[in-house]
Specification:
The chain has 570 residues and is an alpha/beta fold. The chain has helices at 12-18, 50-55, 57-63, 98-110, 129-135, 194-210, 254-266, 283-287, 301-304, 310-326, 343-346, 350-366, 395-399, 443-446, 453-466, 524-529, and strands at 30-34, 67-70, 74-75, 87-91, 114-119, 145-146, 169-171, 177-179, 214-217, 273-276, 297-298, 332-334, 370-374, 477-478, 485-492, 495-502, 508-511, 515-519, 557-560, 564-569. It folds into 3 domains: 12-123 and 201-226 and 254-394 and 410-463, Glycosidases (TIM Barrel); 129-179, Oligo-1,6-glucosidase, Domain 2 (Oligo-1,6-glucosidase, domain 2), CATH 3.90.400.10; 476-569, Golgi alpha-mannosidase II (Immunoglobulin-like, Sandwich). The chain is built from 16 helices and 20 strands. The strands form 5 sheets. It has an 8-stranded parallel beta sheet. Strands 14-15-16-20-18 form a 5-stranded antiparallel beta sheet. It has a 3-stranded antiparallel beta sheet with strand order 6-8-7, with no helix packed on it. The longest helix is centred in the middle third of the chain and has 17 residues, at 194-210. Bound molecules: beta-D-glucopyranose (BGC).
Length: 570
C-alpha cells in the first residue's frame, strides 16, 4: 500500500488567510531567527542588513513562520556581533537606518509576520556614552566598578571568569576594575541603579512605539548579581552554566525586573511578548521566568543540549512540559541558534547528522508549545568547521579560553541561489567565506525538490498550521515503544496525531500507528538494504513508508527508518 506522506505546502496567501490573529499567539508560534549580519545583504558590502532582510521576508512566509526574531542591529562597535550596544535607539549604519527598521516592521506586518527584536540589558558597549563617562570618573554607579585585591590592588576584585574566557574584570587607568561577564568591550550594568532601570523602560517603549511585537531579552538571567559579589572558589565556571546556580547568573532578583517589563508590555495590549534567553540550572528554575506575571517565553536549552538518545530526550520533554505547565506557560523548543554548533553537525557527521537533524526537527514541531528555527537550518546547513583563523570574529575565539570560540561556524551567510557572488546573499561577497558546496543547498536549489530539507520544513510547517493537534495543548501521551524509539499521541479539537521517532541506527518494526502524514526519511526498506545509499542527501519525505501488508488489514506493521521521525494521522 502506498501512502502519500506530504500535502503540498499552501501558497503564502492561503497561509495568511488560514492564520487569523489569535489570542496568545506566541504559545504555539514558529519563530524564525534572522541573524541580520548573515541573512541578506542589500548593498554589496558583504554584511547582511535590514533592507536585505525585508526583501527576503517572503521566504519566511513561504516557509510558514509566524514571526521573525532579529538579532541586534543597533549602533555598535561590533566587538561581539552587535551584542555590544552603544546607542539603543539607533540603527548601526552597517545595517541601515531607523527608516529601514520601520519599513521592515511594516512589511512584516503586511505579510502577517510578527517582529521580535533583541534587547541587550546586561551590558552596554564600552563605547556607550555612560561607560565613557564612567571612565572619565562620572556615573560609575551605573556599572560595577571595584578596587582590586592583593597588596597593590593589582588582582581582580573576585574570581569570576568571563563567559568568553579569562577574568571577568578589567583594570582601568586609575587602578580600579570593572566587571564584564562577556568581553571587556561589554561592561556589565548595575541594575540596582534606578537610572539604569528607567533608561531601559524608555528604550523598550521606543521600540514598542515603532511597532515591534516583542523582545528577545539577551542574558535575561544575568542582570542581577549576588550581593557582595562573592568568590566562586574554582575555575572553569562557564562549564557550570546551565547546571548550577552561580553568583552572577539566575539570581532571584532578576524576576523583579522581568515583572516590571511585563507590566510595561501589557500596557501595550496583550500581544507584545518578552522572550528570555535564560540559562537556568533546571527546568523548574527556568519556569520561574515564564510565570503569569513575568515573560511569555524562555528558550529551552535543556532540549537543545540533549544528546540523540531516546531516554534522555523523553526525560527532557517530560521535565520541560511539567515545569512550564506548573506555571501555566508553554514550552519554547529550539535546536539551533547563532551561539551553538548547528544541530545538523551536532548530531553527528555527514548523512547521519542530517538524518537526525531532520528527525529532531519533526519531533520538535510535534511537541506542544512554540518552536524557534534558526536561519539556514531549513536548508540543512552544516556547521562550517574549517574557517581560517584570520576571518574569525567571535570574541571568544580571540580570547582563546573559556568557550570553544567557534561561533563563527554557525554564522556563515546563507545561500539563496546556486550562482552569483555569495550565492545570492548579496551583490558583493560575504563577511565569512561560504563553502562552495553550499550552492547545492541554496533556497533556489532546494525549492521544488521533494527530497530537500527545505521542502520538508515547508511541508511540516504547513501541516502544523492545518492540524489542530500540532503545537497546541500542553502535554503528550506516551505510547509503548521498543527501546530507542519514542512514540506519543497528541490530541486537540477532536483530531489526533501520533509521532514516532526511531533514534536507533537500524530500522525498527512497529504495528502501524495510523496513516502516515509526513516522514523525515525515506522508506525503511531502502535504508535497511543499503544504509550507505543515503549518501549526503536524504531522499524525499514525500515518499512511501515501507508497509508489509499491502491489504492494509488489521495487524499490519511498518518499518521505521533509522534516525527518523514520522507523523501519523490516527
Ligand atoms: C548572545 C550572544 C552574546 C552574549 C553576550 C548571548 O547570549 O546570544 O551572542 O555573545 O549574549 O551579549
Amino acid at each position: 500500500m502506498v501512502h502519500e506522506l506530504t500535502s503540498p505546502a499552501p501558497a503564502p496567501d492561503d497561509l495568511r488567510r488560514a492564520s487569523p490573529s489569535k489570542p496568545g499567539w506566541w504559545r504555539d508560534a514558529v519563530i524564525y531567527q534572522v541573524y541580520v549580519r548573515s541573512f541578506a545583504d542589500s548593498d554589496g558590502d558583504g554584511i547582511g542588513d535590514l533592507r536585505g532582510a525585508r526583501e527576503r521576508l517572503p521566504h519566511l512566509v513561504a516557509l510558514g513562520a509566524d514571526a521573525v526574531w532579529l538579532t541586534p542591529f543597533y549602533a555598535s562597535p561590533q566587538a561581539d556581533g552587535g551584542y555590544d550596544v552603544s546607542d539603543y535607539r539607533a540603527v548601526d549604519p552597517v545595517f541601515g537606518d531607523l527608516a529601514d527598521a520601520d519599513d521592515l516592521v511594516r512589511t512584516a506586518h503586511e505579510l502577517g509576520l510578527r517582529v521580535i527584536v533583541d534587547i541587550v540589558p546586561n551590558h552596554t558597549s564600552d563605547q556607550h556614552p555612560w561607560f565613557r563617562e564612567a571612565l572619565a570618573g562620572r556615573g560609575r554607579r551605573r556599572y560595577h566598578f571595584r578596587p582590586g585585591t592583593g597588596p597593590d590592588g593589582s588582582l581582580p576584585p573576585n574570581d569570576w571568569e568571563s563567559v568568553f574566557g579569562g577574568p571577568a574584570w578589567t583594570r582601568v587607568a586609575d587602578g580600579s576594575w570593572y566587571l564584564h561577564l562577556f568581553a571587556p568591550e561589554q561592561p556589565d550594568l548595575n541594575w540596582d541603579d534606578e537610572e539604569v532601570r528607567d533608561e531601559f523602560e524608555s528604550v523598550l517603549r521606543f521600540w514598542l512605539d515603532l511597532g515591534v511585537d516583542g523582545f528577545r531579552i539577551d542574558v535575561a538571567h544575568g542582570m542581577v548579581k549576588a550581593p557582595g559579589l562573592p568568590d566562586i572558589g574554582h575555575r572553569e565556571q562557564v562549564r557550570l552554566i546551565g547546571s548550577q546556580q552561580l553568583p552572577f547568573f539566575d539570581q532571584d532578583g532578576v524576576h523583579e525586573i522581568h515583572r516590571a517589563w511585563r507590566r510595561l508590555l501589557d500596557s501595550y495590549g496583550d500581544e507584545r511578548i518578552g522572550v528570555a534567553e535564560a540559562w537556568a540550572p533546571s527546568a523548574e528554575r527556568l519556569a520561574l521566568y515564564v510565570r503569569p506575571d513575568e515573560l511569555h517565553q524562555a528558550f529551552n536549552f535543556q532540549y537543545l543540549n540533549c544528546p540523540w538518545d531516546a531516554d534522555a530526550l523523553r526525560r527532557v520533554v517530560d521535565d520541560s512540559l511539567r515545569a512550564t505547565t506548573s506555571v501555566g506557560a508553554t514550552t519554547t523548543w529550539v535546536l539551533s541558534n547563532h551561539d551553538v554548533v548547528r544541530h545538523t553537525t551536532r548530531y553527528g557527521a555527514g548523512a547521519a547528522g542530517l538524518r537526525r537533524a531532520r528527525a529532531a526537527t519533526l519531533l520538535m514541531l510535534a511537541l506542544p508549545g512554540s518552536a524557534y528555527v534558526y536561519q539556514g537550518e531549513e536548508l540543512g546547513l552544516p556547521e562550517v568547521t574549517d574557517l581560517p583563523d584570520e576571518v574569525r570574529q567571535d570574541p571568544a575565539f580571540q580570547r582563546g579560553e573559556g568557550q570553544d570560540g567557534l561561533r563563527d561556524g554557525c554564522r556563515v551567510p546563507i545561500p539563496w541561489t546556486s550562482q552569483g557572488p555569495s550565492y545570492g546573499f548579496g551583490p558583493g561577497g560575504s563577511w565569512l567565506p561560504q563553502p562552495p558546496e553550499w550552492r547545492d543547498l541554496s533556497v533556489e536549489a532546494q525549492t521544488g525538490d521533494p527530497a530537500s530539507t527545505l521542502e520538508l520544513y515547508r511541508s511540516a510547517l504547513a501541516l502544523r498550521r492545518a492540524h489542530p493537534a500540532l503545537g497546541a495543548g500542553d502535554g503528550v501521551e506516551w505510547l509503548p515503544a521498543p527501546p530507542g524509539v519514542l512514540a506519543f499521541r497528541r490530541r486537540a479539537e477532536g483530531a489526533a496525531l501520533i509521532c514516532t521517532v526511531n533514534l536507533t541506527p537500524g530500522p525498527v518494526r512497529l504495528p502501524a500507528p495510523g496513516r502516515p502524514l509526513l516522514s523525515s526519511a525515506p522508506p525503511a526498506g531502502a535504508c535497511a538494504g543499503d544504509a550507505a545509499a543515503l549518501g549526503g542527501k536524504v531522499p524525499a519525505p514525500a515518499r512511501e513508508l515501507a508497509d508489509d501488508d499491502p491489504d492494509g488489514a488489521e495487524g499490519r506493521t511498518v518499518l521505521l527508518a533509522p534516525d527518523s521521525c514520522v507523523w501519523w494521522a490516527s
